[in-house]
Amino acid sequence: MAKCAICDKGAHFGNHVSHSHRKTPKMWKSNVKSVRVKTESGATERMYVCTSCLRSGKVERA
């Protein structure tokens, strides 16, 4: 599972609880995209970035 290179956000784990209160394992996947990003040196690099970091402007796309 991919993690965000900026904020290190990844998958979250917990339990799905039914109406009868039975618990089964569940995984929530974060919305992580593979994006070409400009680095500090001016070069372009492909990395995994979550959509919340893309929208907030923490990353400049190439």
Automatic annotation (TrEMBL):
The keyword Lipoprotein does not apply. The keyword Electron transport does not apply. GO terms for cellular component: ribosome. Keywords: Ribonucleoprotein, Ribosomal protein. It comes from the Bacteria. SUPFAM superfamilies: L28p-like (SSF143800). Pfam families: Ribosomal_L28 (PF00830). Belongs to the bacterial ribosomal protein bL28 family. This is Large ribosomal subunit protein bL28. It comes from Dorea ammoniilytica. The gene is rpmB.
